[in-house]
Amino acid sequence: METISAIVLTRNEEKNIARCLQSLRWADEIIVIDSESTDHTREIAEAEGARVIVHQWQGAGAQYAFGIAQATCDWVMVVDADEEVTPELKGNITNVLQIGGRHSGYYLTRQNFALGRWLRHGGWQEQVLRLFRRGSVESPPTLHPRFKVAGTAGKLDGILRHYMAQDFLEWWFRSMRLARSEAEGDFTRGERFSGFELISAFWKFLRRYTFKFGFLDGAAGFYACFQRFLYIAVKEACLLELQLSLRKPSGAEKIPFK
Q1: According to the model, what pLDDT value does residue 252 have?
Q2: Could you give the CA distance from residue 39 to residue 256 in angstroms, rounded to a whole number?
Q3: How buried is residue 36: exposed, middle or buried, by Cβ count under 10 Å (0-12/13-18/19+)?
Q4: What is the mean pLDDT of residues 118-144?
Q5: 30 & 84 share domain
Q6: Are 39 and 111 within 8 A, CB to CB?
């Protein structure tokens, strides 16, 4: 049977980390890459049996690349601190380890929980590439993780639960900070304000909320769909500020989001 390393990124995740790590106890190795937390995240992670490595934040892609480099097992699975592996998903991953796996990587189904309910419509049942052979994966140094595998990628049944936000304010401030960080990173790479992006973002809101039945998830469904538009609107506003020299880049793209 092949072995697996679980990689978790953290920054002040004391509310989430125990639940996450408890769902990964079956892994042969759990590595937490902590971005200088100031709460009890590291102590909780160590108590749950994880190997904790403190590493200054350089963006999610670079953090995951660093974490993967520390792994020693045949397979690597990356999990956010606010996510949880269900028993069904664990069982299917274990089957891959037993038979060796026909693919270099696997997509998992992520279900999002927001504002008190699971989002079942609006395109919120997402497919995320999170399981791969250690020697076959690349994590480019981007703000958002964009994993690439050398070879084919399959799909596993089972749910990866994602607890997006406990309340409206937490979701809002985290999203807006991330939008500003992304804008600053994109600006340094030459991207500028685009009105077309705003129009496209509003169309995506309408498509998710109406044609993908996001309205069936009630108020949480409305905000989840509309938040995507707000995120892009804030990002474009920040790009315009930078373009007009109303402020200078603050280096926020290097700051953890929590």
Answers
A1: 52
A2: 14
A3: middle
A4: 91
A5: yes
A6: no
Q: Report yes or no: 34 and 105 within 8 Å, Cβ to Cβ.
A: no
Work out the average pLDDT over 173-179. 85
Q: Is residue 212 domain-shared with residue 128, that is, in the same domain?
A: no
174 and 160 part of one domain: no
160 with 190, same domain: the answer is no
56's CB contacts (< 8 A; 6+ apart) are 35, 36
Mean pLDDT of 24-30: 97
For residue 218, give Cα distances in angstroms to 11, 22, 123, 224: 31, 31, 14, 10
Identify whether the C-beta of residue 118 lies closer than 8 Å to the C-beta of residue 221.
Answer: no
> 192 and 243 in contact (C-beta within 8 Å)?
yes
Which has the closest alpha carbon to 19: 163, 144, 149, 217? 163
- Asked whether residue 107 falls in the same domain as residue 63, the answer is yes
Q: What is the pLDDT of residue 254?
A: 54
Q: What are phi and psi of 253, to 5 degrees?
A: -65, -15
**Residue 55 carries which DSSP code?**
-
Dist. CA 37–CA 179, nearest whole Å: 21
- Mean pLDDT over the full length of the chain: 91
Among the candidates 141, 165, 189, a domain finishes at: 165
The mean per-residue pLDDT over the stretch 227-254 comes to 84
